[in-house]
Amino acid sequence: MGKIVFRIGLDLDQIDREILANCEKASAAAARGEAVEAKRTVNFESWTTFFQAVTPNRIAILEYVAEHDAVASTRALAMALGRDYAAVHADVAALLKLRLLEREGNALHCEVGPDGAELVAA
After folding, report:
1. pTM > 0.85
2. Residue 20 region, left (φ>0) first, then alpha (ψ -120 to 50), else beta?
3. pLDDT tens digits in sequence order for the chain, 122 residues long
4. Domains within the chain, CATH numbers bracketed
């Protein structure tokens, strides 16, 4: 499983520089035959946009899916969490859009481990 980094408040120039630096580090490590840890970065313009996108219910979904490796369906996830299907469906759709969850058929997967998140504010 990889790592996810949430970055808040970076401007586009900072993001571009960070992407370039990360690519150069990964390329150099791969050239030396070293393993490169998968890392996904999600950038948010502000704390407000972060908290609109990453709500406590959505965090609970990510934690549950990561702990169980996969969940058979959105309905199964709603039942396991004891939540309304429509609300879970909306949260899953938002997490899929952010690419924090992945869908394979009906099954939901989370490539980020339960301890694989980092929050960085500019």
Report:
1. no
2. alpha
3. 567 788 888 778 887 888 888 889 889 988 999 887 777 788 888 999 999 999 999 989 988 998 888 899 999 999 999 999 999 999 999 999 988 899 999 999 987 665 666 777 76
4. 2-121 (1.10.10.10)
